[in-house]
Amino acid sequence: MNPARFYLALGLALFLAVTLPPLFDRWRLNAPIVLVSLGLVLGLLPGFRELDLDPVAHGEAVTRISEFTVLVSLMGVGLAIDRPLSFRDRGSWRSWSPTWRLLGIAMPLCIGGVALLAWGPMGVAAPAALLLGAALAPTDPVLASDVQVGGPNEAQPEPDAEAAEVDEEDEVRFALTSEAGLNDSLAFPFVHAAILLASVGAVSEWGAGWVAWELVGKTVLGVAVGVALGWVVARLAFTARAEEIRFAATGEPLVAIAALLAAYGLAEVCGGYGFLAVFTCAMAIRSFERKSAYHHDMHEVIERLERLLTLVVLLLLGMALTNGLLAHLDWRGVVLSLALLLVIRPLAGVASFVGHRRSRGLAGFDARERLVAAVYGVRGVGSIFYIGYAVTHAEFAEARWLWSVIAFTVVVSVYLHGFTAPWAMGWQERGEQSQRRAASRS
Hints:
By secondary structure, the chain is mainly α. 74% of the residues lie in helices and 0% in strands.
């Protein structure tokens, strides 16, 4: 790779990261659509066509860049959620009911649906089929901004009102945001299962250990590390006796970046899931002094870094698409991608809410909201990370085909969900307003 061209592309991305966001907000443009489209055009220009953007040849670099992008996004998501979650409060657990259903029902159905469709009718090898299902199952925390909650307390018209403290006004945004924060970690056991299937062999040889360690042990460790570290950081930030290390008083927002790096590193060193540790660390910090403006300051720093990383990743993805990344895409990949986005995810999402009554924790979650939450599981940078991670840890004969399918799915999701999300969110919000007007008249 010519370093000069790479630095040119990176410099352009940094420049655009500063200038484009205000224009996106002003013109109501979907940032991922614009960035991918710009990357597609740049990839056709003579100065950029020589860039070596082969994800197989540069698997480690792709994995690390996408990994850090997801980490930053998870920290931002955790800080943005206003709704509390307490281990000792059953009511708070019930208020997260949409999240648990999307994680416990919709995501496994998506993994199984894609894997079975790829392995059965389409003849994809079992390890690659399972990897594809696991990588494409999570809702992406990076690209789903159009259907997520805003920053800390941004949805609160009256910051001092106790009723406004909990982000109850938009169940769809909350469900998709919290799902995106948690399901990146919970897809990891199935990525590891695909790696074991490719490298070790039959499930009988590793299945029991996988359930005990990959599925349960690492999840518990990730949560424990994140909660503990978040509690320590929050205590220092808000209640430390020495003002120099009481970060909320000094207004030092870079603590958020330090916390995400420490949470991820400590969890991985301990053997837990780092993604889960970062999200739970952010949630633990957010639970302290919930109304403090310091949460907004930390979130703003994370949001700026996330914007930059997302811009770089999407520009490079767009350029790679016009430089051969889709060369191995065939009809099977197209069918699998469209089946996931148009059939499997929507049906799995709808199925996850079947039989759940309002009185059991879905207050205000009506038919419109359930449909939008079921459909808008955006695929993105997390899928890129999982494929990069897997193909650098095991041999997959279908590696290039997998990359083509993942890239195609991410781009289709960017355009499909990006163009339709504003309409869908407006549709379900009009339904909410109609319900409120009907309730006030009665």
